[in-house]
Give the backbone structure.
Amino acid sequence: MIRPAGDIRVLVVDDSGLVRDLIRAILESEPGISVVGEAANGLEAIVKVASLKPDIVTMDIEMPVMGGLEAIEKIIAAHPVPILVVTALTGVRTAFAAVSKGALDVIEKPDISIENVKRLITKIRLLSNVDVSAHQLALGRKNVAIADSRPVQGMEGANAALVAIAASTGGPQAIHSILSRLPRTFPAPVIITQHIAEGFTQGMVDWLNAATPLTVVVAGNGDRPCAGHVYVNPAEHSMRITAQRVIILGDREPGQVYNPSCNTLLCSVAATYKKEAIGLIMSGMGDDGVAGMKEIRMAGGTTLAQDAKSSVVFGMNRLAVERGYVHKVVTLDKIPAELMQRVGTRV
């Protein structure tokens, strides 16, 4: 799913000239990145993608003439290219709909802070390597039946009490695909840590809620995970589950490179649920979540990983597999059925 390495050619799409200038200045300050064109609306973007053939597009959502959502759909259909949605916090809910249209990720419009500049550059370098055509094929963007709720007798991990998911870049669209195919009667709570910028969690939760019969919420301090519910780690906090099976939110932990921390959640799940835990590590860069998967496996739980072909970035899941912490690698389209079989049914 990775194209050959080379200089990264970027098309910047935003109706604000000031924003385009800022993004251009940030990107062109980096060696190996060049802005080959700009567009002030979605219609211009479609024309320039066809003529300039950029390696990646940064796309605003709210624009005159043609908005980002329509432009993304048309670009992916005609000239598949990595698209990074760059949006203001006020447009987060709409921005996640762009992921359903084929965008690879969503990021907040940058300012001059070092952290935001670094985040934008990292995303550009990472996502520009994705072969979008291959990724779309692996995702299999078509209607798939809701997973069969019948368990497989004797399967390891049957009657699991909780499913814990760790994800980073490429995670939202994969999680959306999974949750949309789990039935309302799914007999175990699902808890998710997804690397995401502060202020974006509620928008992702609203987007996921519209796609699944399960109830998706931003996890709250003191919540008790229950079946039929999905709890998403708020970006501003680390999250763990206590021995009493209660969610506790804390400050971000010093020294953590990735936030919120997948390892913090998974290690607490391993300690609390032991053999009743299912850990699923998904698309993402870095190694966050790998140590947590090890803990779940050592505690007797079941560990699964998303496959390489459907991952935007086969990074953290790859490391977990290579280090022997994963029981089974599963293609994205088969994960819902795998989870249903492993959680079993409760009366």
Notes: The chain has two domains: 8-139, 162-343. Residues 149-158 have pLDDT under 50 and may be disordered.
